[in-house]
Amino acid sequence: MIAPSKLDERAKTIARDFPILAQPTSRGKRLAFLDSAASSQKPQAVIDALVHYYTYDNANIHRGVYELAERATAAFEGAREKVARFINAAESAELIWTRNTTESINLVSFSWGLQNLRPGDAILTSQLEHHSNLVPWQLLAAKTGADLRFIEVDANGMHELDDLDEKLHGVKLVALSHISNSLGTIAPLETIVPRAHAAGAIVLVDAAQSVPHMKVDVRALDVDFLAASGHKMCGPTGIGFLYGKRALLEAMPPFLTGGDMIKRVEYRETSFNEIPWKFEAGTSNIADAVALGAAVDYLETIGMDWVHAHERRLTAFALERMRTLEPLGLAIYGPLDPKDRSGIIAFNLADVHAHDLASILDTEGVCVRAGHHCTMPLMEKMGWPATARASFYLYNTEEDVEQLAGALHKAARIFKLA
Ligand code: C6P
Hints:
By secondary structure, the chain is an alpha/beta fold. It contains 14 helices and 15 strands. The protein has a seven-stranded mixed beta sheet, sandwiched between helices.
């Protein structure tokens, strides 16, 4: 157990690795960046890796026999190995580069889904899902005649599992977010995954909000597919990945076709490359993959257990500070038990629209997201037109939380709630 002050001290040191955090806002305020669930900031080491790649190693991969091309290929495939190790995949061939979580999920939907689902089958997801883990399944269900079912959530965003076995009847695919981007709920995967497998379903996990923040072990979780985005884990935008178990990936048809994903092409026929390249048509996002490898190095140097412990403690501290505003009308959403939630806090202030609230927080240098957070059905179910959302990462400190609390008090004064 690390002492609270030690966690915050280290976070202050870590924040210095992120040059963007040192700049004041145009109003001269200190920047309190509390929107890492949307996209994280990048440490200098990742920015340097990008510049280094373009300065010294840039060439197309898997094609050239010259030294530079070999160096680029080695950097690209080396990054794949780093990310595969980071999530404890059995082998790097099970790690496919994509643009982001959204593309990873669409890959599974188009490739595995169209090949495997028939009328009478079912897909099970939850009421918490980001549109990226909902719309692909709506379209797949419409195309294949499969049924789309939902694990319901209660008023605090907790999964209701009493009727899980009943709901799993006939299900071929369970698709769940590990951590809800709207409410921070951590899905009880240790309960759901074995029961899904026992019912004959495979499991896809949308790990966009978990892989950046905690140790995620695909083999310990025994998930079949896992999707994540580089830009939420200190890496660049435009690079993400899909993990899949070898046997599943090998049996799936390609999603996109063209160069690099082929073994042999004739005028009327093509045989496909091995995994992972079978799913990587065209020139890949080489530089950003390499920089994501640097982001993984950076996170591993700090330690994912440390990241998780720090965020847990900072979230508990933020909840404590924010609760002092409850008498002024601050409503905080999401799981009540801290062990069920991550570093995401959704809230509203009385009947102030979340966008107005976020704009006032911005005048104090506090960056939070406001809106439906790409979970429109969840907002409608809960009866919230929108929420504001603060989300924490390894570089956030108690000072950021105090700045948020101060800005909320200012908003309460402006709206005559205090
Ligand atoms: N959530 C947020 O502010 P992409 O855009 O493909 O990198 O990630 C999509 C995605 C999928 N699942 C979950 C759980 C997510 O949180 C996100 C992205 C951001 O909450 C942007 S909408």
